[in-house]
Amino acid sequence: xxxxxxxxxxxxxxxxxxxxxxxxxxxxxxxxxxxxxxxxxxxxxxxxxxxxxxxxxxxxxxxxxxxxxxxxxxxxxxxxxxxxxxxxxxxxxxxxxxxxxxxxxxxxxxxxxxxxxxxxxxxxxxxxxxxxxxxxxxxxxxxxxxxxxxxxxxxxxxxxxxxxxxxxxxxxxxxxxxxxxxxxxxxxxxxxxxxxxxxxxxxxxxxxxxxxxxxxxxxxxxxxxxxxxxxxxxxxxxxxxxxxxxxxxxxxxxxxxxxxxxxxxxxxxxxxxxxxxxxxxxxxxxxxxxxxxxxxxxxxxxxxxxxxxxxxxxxxxxxxxxxxxxxxxxxxxxx
Length: 335
Known about the structure:
GO terms for molecular function: DNA binding. The protein is α+β, with helices and mostly antiparallel strands. It has twelve helices and ten strands.
């Protein structure tokens, strides 16, 4: 489709709407928006035409988006991860185990695992420090793999075993190389292989719809586990390198633990519950809420807040893993 500069504005809008009307017969809503973004950029650069002002086109695309549900990659639970790491033999699955550990620990995309180099991984005795560079949103980050022995799984030793099998004659610097019959080869693993690793994990665990465990599975799994732990949005954003809080809020909204907290609060089970409770207390225009989070508070604590000489007391009994948010209304003359 070519839009000449001599064509009037109305004709341009008409041609553009016809183009998307035809495309909508075969393309999904998300693909239509991708085409819209590309077309908007191209026309703005080449023809100085601002497609964002084609309001009927925007309304048309929004109508097409109604009822559309994107297919997100399915996530693994912590029990499923532990089961795979414990039961699967290293003889055939050592590389997949290491990719699983790295992907979940660092919320890594498949491309990030593919680009990882040996210089990005530093063995610090009790931990592994991994640097992730050249990310999709240009935010370099790093993460730690702890020397934990949870459920008999030593994550550090699993990774070290794979690293020790690297052949000295390997000419490239890619961290992940092919692993066959208890030996590493010199061939680097391609990016498409990383996209299929979560599916192989799901197939071994006999999970339904294993094809939905795509290359984004490890990143979504890491985000979901962190959200379930009660970590704050700021911690969550730093961990995955997300710039937008809306993405983080989406994961937290879908967190099972968060839904349990809401359910307990609705049915009056939140008060006095040590780890999965949320309570609100109003004190003279000051709203104080306590919710489950990663920080720890000792039992039978008393929070005392002094405002203009007036003492406000809030007793917190039998609580742990609590965050306290205090909102003060300075416009209230009674304070």
